Amino acid sequence: MTLHHWPLQERPRERLLKYGPQQLSDTELLAIILRSGTRGLTVLELAGALLAHFSSLRGVISASSHELCALPGIGKARYCELQAAMEICRRQLAEPLYKRSVFHCAEDAKFYLRAELRDLKQEVFGVLMLDSQHQLIMFRKLFSGTINAAAVYPREIVRQVIADHAAAIILVHNHPSGNPTPSEADIRLTRDIKHAMALVDVEVLDHFIVADNQVCSLAQQGLM
C-alpha cells in the first residue's frame, strides 16, 4: 500500500496542518522532507528505515553524503534536501546574533554554535567576528584538523579580522570527543591569540568549546 492509499487524515502533511509540527513523530517529520518513497517502501517506511539505521534524526542529518547515498532510495537530491533543511535551521538560529549583542543573547549564541559544530567528526576552529556593539558580523570557520586537533595560526586570524573590520572576536572550536574541558594547549592558544589581537586593538571576549550538547566558556572559568 502506498501513502496515497492511507486515510487522508493520517498522512504526515495533513496531520501537520491539523495538529502542528510539534505533534508529529520524527518519522513523520522526516517523511515530509523526503516527500516520496522508493520501490517497495512508502515514504514513512523509508523515513523509519533511515532513523533505524542512523539511530536518530540527528544521526540522519549529520550523516555524510557517502553514508546516506549508500542506502537504497537515498540519492544526492535527497541528501541535498536534508542538508538544506538543516542549513535553514542554522541560519535561523544565527539571526538574533546579528541584531543584538552576543552577550545579551548568550543562550542563542550557544544554540547556534552547537548546531554549527557539535556533529562535526573533526576538530574545527572558528571565530565569531563582532562589531563595536558586539553584534555578529560573520562566523568564520578558519581551521580544521583531525579528530582531536586543528593547527591554528594567529597571524591568519589577524588577517581575517582586519578584512572583516571586526572590533572584537569570540574564539570557538569543537571537541569531537564530547569532553568540553579546555586543554592546556587550548588555554595557551587563547592567550597567544589575545596577544596577537592586542597589537591590532581587537579584544578577544571569550573562547567557547563545543562538545556535543555542552558549551564551555574559558572566560567564565577565568582561563583567559
Automatic annotation (TrEMBL):
Keywords linked to the UniProt accession: Hydrolase, Metal-binding, Metalloprotease, Protease, Zinc
Domain (MPN): residue spans on this chain: 102-224
UniProt cross-references to InterPro entries, sorted A to Z: MPN, RadC_JAB, RuvA_2-like, UPF0758, UPF0758_CS, UPF0758_N
Similarity remark: Belongs to the UPF0758 family.
Cited PANTHER family: DNA REPAIR PROTEIN RADC, UPF0758 PROTEIN YEES-RELATED
Name the UniProt record assigns to this protein: DNA repair protein RadC
UniProt organism field: Alteromonas oceani
